[in-house]
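Re: the multi-chain job from yesterday

Posting the exact lines I submitted so nobody has to dig through the queue logs.
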Amino acid sequence: MDIKKRAFKRSLWVYHLSGGSCNNCDIEILDCLTPRFDIERFGMVLVGSPRHADVLLCTGIVNKKCVERMREVYDQTAKPCVVVAVGACACSGGIFREGYQMAGPLEKIMPVDVYIPGCPPKPEAMIAGIVKLLEKIK
Amino acid sequence: MKLADSLKEKLGERIREINIHNERRIYLTVDVKDLLECAGILFREMDGRYIVASGADNSGSFEILYHFGFDRQGSVVSLRVLLAGKDPEVPSLSAVIPGITYIEREMWELLGIRFTGHPGLRHFLLREDWPQGNYPLRKEGATEGEKSEE
Amino acid sequence: MKNKKRVIIPIGPYHPLLEEPEFFSLYCDGETVVDVEWEAGYNHRAIEKLSESKHWDQVTFLVERICGICSTSHPFAYCNAVEDILGITVPERAKYIRSIIGEMERIHSHLLWVGLAGHFLGYNTVFMWAWKYRETILDMFEMITGNRNHYAMFRIGGVRRDIEDGDIPSLRKVLGEMEGKLEMLTRAVLDDPVLAVRLKGVGVLTRRDIKDFGAVGPVARASGVDFDVRKDDPYAAYPLVKWKVITTGNGDVFDKAVVRLLETFESVSIIRQCLDAIEGKKGEIENQVREVPAGQGIGRHEAPRGECFHYVRSDGANSPVRHKIRAPSYVNIPTFKASCTGQTISDVAIILAGVDPCYCCTERVAVYDAGNKKKLYGFPELVEMSRKKTERIIKGEMK
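And the result, structure tokens for all chains:
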């Protein structure tokens, strides 16, 4: 079943993955769950396993210690899936780009479909990015 | 008694150099052979609080600063040892300060300082297969991140 | 007909195939934890090295991003360190502004913690409420600084932006409302008999444990160790206003929760006094610093998690020649060895939460059998066990 059909049969299952981040993007992602932003109204649910995920929300630079794990999670995720790079670190490495632990940015490890820049991107920005994605799928 | 005077009294001849930056920041240099004893005096006898240790590459030689908190006086006392040579060695303080094992592993993998007597000197922050002899925090031969190809 | 949706917080992947070491590896014999190993590095981004190639002012932006939750704590300590080299203080108005930002951060961080702890225990409404109240603080940050997180308020010699009189009434309003909510949350924790059974006597750290690991912050103060950088090595506006250090004596997770909750009231009081000091007045917010001479300095700040310690060395050039950063979690996390050993697996999640580690680190927790080293559980399972234990206690209570 391709992702277009899945998106409309039920809610999008979103899995969060960090490749070495300061946690800000991760907390803002969790913030999307709280009553003020409530991503459930867009039909999105955060899940605890990548196996059934439709969307991978990735944060962090992808540091050298995380590379294999991230690749493994991507491999385990049911295809087709959408990979979203959340935050400056995932998009480009951000301020850590020249460090010796840098093995990213994310697009070096897996194909990226959506880039949401920001440090961190506000929940509104993340939601806007996801909504744009949903419209594209339509 | 002022903290600096207390330190001079307890450590005596072992102090090679004392730098009182201000009342709350005191730096003491001791020989490596006296390190274990001095750390014991600061940590146990004088009840200093272990904060952290910081190694540094001074382009040719190395040094380690062991930072202790003397909170009654709101002060930090930093115990310095100077290490010569490209592959310096220093005794581990893990028998005195149980929590110091992590920073010693870190100083080993980032600076290449060996801690003799350490219960398990192995990688902590870096991957297990990090290239041997590659010490990122050293000044010369420092590695850089993945430079982009464009 | 839609089923009632359950929101599952992804506190960790469970990969039976992955062999690499986890952030926390717990070894258990039956239901009891017998050993704990800590492997860091999953968030290591080479910041100390990067610092050596950044200009003094750029380093403030770099260290802000060490941790998103205590985003201001590292610039605070770093600026204190460089100002220690220079032997300067900042203008009085800047002191008040620094303390205001620092204390607002403490409130939002502790609320975040209360939410996560509630989640681990199965009190999901606590999670939702605490994070909802936290939003109002983030709104205030955005109003004053332009960003919800990573507020970039600090510079060497002062602060980068002033707090305008026009913003102060909103701040005061939020503080007033916050007090009522904090009161409610605190009463909910202190008076709940289930939480008392669940958290008292769990994950105890003795004074000896605190000393051996150098633990700091609420973790240490819950064990009766009366150390708070703001009081003992005063800086910014902390010696200029009235407030008290919160210490308790039992060293268990319950006490750690109490310390954090009571601290937030002190934070509200500190912010109010600082606002009183700056409202309607004008003043310099920066002592201009053109260069940093050769020397070394140590600066610290009492971050929400404890003492944040920066050592900086200069050789007179444009960048630090050495920058040592020690976050409070570096010394708090190893206490897990002491607080978890001998405890049951169902308490691991909440003991871990008691230390207030960074959220991403909890994604990498695994429990192994001490005998055959087989992997038994990941963090989601530990959270489930924790919640089930709470349920059992509730049922026992209701009998």
